[in-house]
TrEMBL record:
Protein name in the entry: Nitroreductase A
Name of one Pfam family that matches: Nitroreductase
Superkingdom field: Archaea
Annotated organism of origin: Candidatus Nitrosomarinus catalinensis
NCBIfam families per record: BluB (TIGR02476)
UniProt keyword list: Flavoprotein, FMN, NAD, NADP, Nucleotide-binding, Oxidoreductase
Keyword Nucleotide-binding in annotation: yes
């Protein structure tokens, strides 16, 4: 049972928000220093304590350090990046191809997070109306993992330019298991002040006021929410 004495101190709150605002999707800057086993265990424990629909805990974590496996995944990345560049016109195509978008070979640990919809049988509380809730649960675990890694000073990058079929074949996943995220983990020589794609001006960061609506879609001026509207405008970034 949670009691008031378990409330976070101001210092703990600052640490929590620091992890959120300084988290980065790391593609470069990895160094060769290995991740300590006890630290990696902490990060995995944090992921495993994520919320999940119906307490189904539908995730699994595949740890990878074998270079041959990494090379196969890197080949898939290279092919998928080349293929996806065909749908982008110049000059964006060249800019896209110039980006460093993964650290598969450079990071000491690769990690595949999967979704198993069969855990605990076909009926999971909360998933009958929204089947995708199982996948959402896995994403919660990934976010926990990401924030824990940042808190421990470990960089993490999510490689989404991959063939899931190649992942399933290479990692020998059962047919029903879905690879959700392929992650690169390792110490880095720096965490960037801003996300790489924001710095490169690929896309801008949207203002919070532009993505918050009140009561209904695209209602931004509801007078019942005036105070929070003013706060969002002034002090939340």
């Amino acid at each position: 049972m949670i009691v008031l004495e378990d409330s976070f101190t101001d210092e703990e709150k600052r640490g929590f928000y620091k992890a959120i605002y300084s988290r980065r999707d790391v593609r470069s800057h990895f160094i060769s220093k290995p991740i300590e086993e006890n630290k990696l265990s902490k990060i995995l424990h944090a992921a495993h304590h994520a919320p999940s629909v119906g307490f189904s805990q539908p995730w699994n974590f595949i740890l990878i350090k074998d270079q041959a496996t990494k090379k196969k995944i890197k080949e898939s990345f290279d092919e998928e990046k080349r293929r996806s560049s065909q749908v982008v016109d110049e000059p964006k195509k060249s800019k896209y191809l110039s980006f460093k978008l993964e650290g598969i070979l450079e990071s000491p640990v690769n990690l595949c997070v999967t979704y198993d919809p069969t855990k605990f049988g076909p009926f999971v509380i909360g998933r009958s109306s929204i089947p995708e809730a199982g996948l959402y649960s896995v994403c919660c675990a990934i976010q926990n993992l990401w924030l824990s890694a940042r808190t421990e000073g470990v960089g993490l990058g999510w490689v989404s330019i991959l063939s899931n079929e190649i992942l399933k074949e290479t990692l020998q996943l059962p047919e029903h298991v879905v690879p959700v995220a392929y992650l690169c983990l390792g110490y880095v020589n720096e965490f960037a002040d801003k996300p790489d794609l924001e710095t490169a001006k690929w896309l801008p960061r949207l203002d919070l006021k532009d993505v918050v609506y009140y009561e209904k879609w695209e209602d931004k001026e509801n007078s019942d929410w005036k105070e929070i509207q003013d706060l969002i405008q002034t002090n939340l970034d």
